[in-house]
Amino acid sequence: MPALEVSAVETLIVSAARLMTGRTTVFVGTGLPMLAAALAKKTCAPDLVCIFEFGGIGSPLDHLPLGVGEARTFERAYAAEGLTGIMETAQRGLIMDGFLGGAQVDPWGNLNTTVIGAHDDPKVRLPGSGGANDVGSLVWRTIILMRHEKKRFVENVDFITTPGYLDGPGARERAGLAPDTGPHRLVTDLAVFDFPPETRRARLVALQPGVAETQVRAETGFSFPVLPALERLPAPTPHELSLLRDTIDPEKVFL
Amino acid sequence: MTEKHHCPDCRWLETRVDLDDGLNYSCQKGNLKAGAPVLTRTPCRDFSLDETAVSVDRKASRSGRTPAHGTRANPPYSPFLKAADTDGFRAFNRDEKELRPVPKIMGEHEAVKRFIKDGDYIGFELYGTVRCPLSIVREVVRQGRKRLRLLGQGLIDVDLLVASGCISALDLAYVGYEAYGLSPVLRRAVEKGKLKAREWSNGALAWRLKAAGMGLPFLPTRSMLGSDTLKSSGVRTMRDPYTGIQVALLPALQLDCAVIHVHRADVNGNCQIDGITGFAPDIARAAKRLIVTAEEIVDEAVIRRTPERTIIPFYLVDAVVHAPFGAHPGETCGLYRRDEEHIKAYLKAIATEEGTRAFLDEWVNGLPDHMAYRRKVGLDRLEGLRHARP
User: Fold this and answer.
1) Fewer CB within 10 Å: C terminus or N terminus of chain A?
2) Between vectors from CA B308 to CA B304 and to CA B310, what angle results, nearest 5°?
3) Active-site residue A53, yes or no?
4) How many structural domains does chain A have?
């Protein structure tokens, strides 16, 4: 069988899905997180309950939703409630994981989806927080999904839309955020970072197939340490790719 | 409105801006003098935003006296935070709401004319393109409302109103097209400095409505803490006096008017929504006036058959408007899907200012009402968007 061409987005989704092994509840935002959640559910996390901010709880995701409030988010679901009900479920500690993305990320996992430039005189007006700040504040662990580009990986984000570890260990707790919460992994099409408790700064822990460390440095606007036992991620399997391409997003909305 | 004042202590700053609902800058040095021409809308560092002193400011500016302002010890909070009027809301509910079950059926023209005024703080309930009450949004544009302050968890609604110059301030959680990208209308307005926005999370805005619905002045939350979103919103934090946990205090948000699109309502305004309910229960209870548009007007007996599904009882509602396909080009879950072709044409149009104007002329201002809109889209085409009945 010839080697499969794998796109950056597919690499990203597969890596994110694999992080959900054995997980239970996940807060799913629009776009790539929907694909990652759907793939995890069909592979490593069959018990995963996908929760959408406008009220959908536990749809099997037979059909890929295009938005976080559309009918497919509660198609054959366990329950359909509303926005405050879902956010309060996260605030009570019942939602384990959440996927987030952004236009910019910094070494502490703070995310910007609000503006590029100064807030009151922005170069680019972005959509705003939506539910992202609630997810980053309230779920136990957040997994950040980003395309790896130098302009997105910056030492300081222009605007902290969603809190990561703010400026280091203990900062979340000092601000009042619940203990034991925060970014778990930063997953990109080039690499995976964690945020060790001593520094809460991004640390390179794994490389995507065929990617060199120098390439990651070239595409990252901040310095980062490297885990001595740096892992090499296995390539997406034909099974994972076929699920993504043929079953989850056959109309190629996101892929 | 922009009042003409000049700070003689400062070279590069000469204005006092007063957006209708309280964007007020006060000079902390007390140097504000009346009379100088307005040169810029950007105040100097000595000016801080102050809403607590709005009423005093207005009188002071007329008499030319120094306006009141926050002190260092008790800094003014964001002018975008309209303080909750908890007792006023109770009194309004007692004195102004119709507590008898009486018919409130009317057309969208009458509903908007009666219940949305210039300068009002309004909100539409929706998620993305789902169940957005666009027939009312278009009527607000047609009637040319001005200086509205908007709860900005939205999309096509926000863009149509911003592009039509109806909005003076925006409390923004998310304005964008999800898979289809950023909003070009919002980008143009904000990047050119024509529109000021304050940032919120979806949860925070919904909880602000919930607080109002609970009849409380604020609701604590553990969201938004530590972020610039919190700073922009102007929300204050405090330690819980019982446990010492730091919480953000979300001020209740009482809207002048809210609009919700529902699956079915009776003539008195008892409403049912199928599927997820978004923030409909919260916004319905947070508004002084509530306009409901319904896909279907049903007999009271239909409502009474499944009362547990009535998430909005009649006494919350001021107007019931029959609006089949009221969310077009968006969808109403369970009834019809969204009109991708129309949305793509719309997105193409709003990419430029000229295109936006042409779109507004063709699809909003050029049509008298929602019936004409439906005819223009094509009644057969609309029926084609319906899901097959199970």
Assistant:
1) N
2) 70
3) yes
4) 1
Q: Does A169 touch chain B (CB under 8 A)?
A: no
Average pLDDT, chain B: 84
Interchain CB contact of A252 with B (< 8 Å): no
Residue A190 belongs to what domain range?
8-248
Q: Residue A80: inside a domain, yes or no?
A: yes
- Decide: residue B49, CB within 10 A, 0-12 exposed, 13-18 middle, 19+ buried: buried
pLDDT at B43 over 60: no
Residue A166 belongs to a domain = yes
For the stretch A193-232, pLDDT in tens is: 999 999 999 999 999 999 999 999 999 999 999 999 999 9
CB-based contact B226 A166, cutoff 8 Å: yes
Contacts of B169 in chain A (CB under 8 A): none
Question: What pTM value is reported for the model?
Answer: 0.87
- Domains identified in chain B and CATH numbers: 2-63 (no CATH), 86-200+254-384 (3.40.1080.10)
Q: B319 with B114: CB under 8 angstroms?
A: yes
Give a yes or no: residue A3 inside a domain. no
What does each C-alpha distance from B347 to A15, B10, B302, B344, B352 come to in angstroms?
A: 33, 44, 39, 5, 10
With a pLDDT cut of 90, the percent of chain A lying above it is 91
CATH number where A26 lies: 3.40.1080.10
* Interface contacts (A, B; CB < 8 Å): 195
**Is B282's CB within 8 Å of A82's CB?**
yes
Q: Which residues of A touch B194 (CB under 8 A)?
A: none
pLDDT number for residue B45: 46
Contact A41, A60 (CB under 8 A): yes
